Prior knowledge:
By secondary structure, the chain is mainly beta. The chain is built from no helices and 5 strands.
Amino acid sequence: MNIVVLRGRISSAPVARELASGSRLLSLEVTTRDESGVAISAPVCWFDPPAATAYDQGDEVVVVGEVKRRDRKSTRLN
Length: 78
């Protein structure tokens, strides 16, 4: 089962963009704190959010979704 619940604050200005496919993407950086108070940030992508969606830096959010990892192969430069 791959279910995540993340509660925190949006730590940078959300970025909305339209993809070549026509889908919309809203990118958020959500920061939460562990038991000792250390800040932990996680990137969050929301595909095709409702048109009236408006979030600002500092807003508290609860995100429910799943983890999807993107493997990025490094390029070796000589």
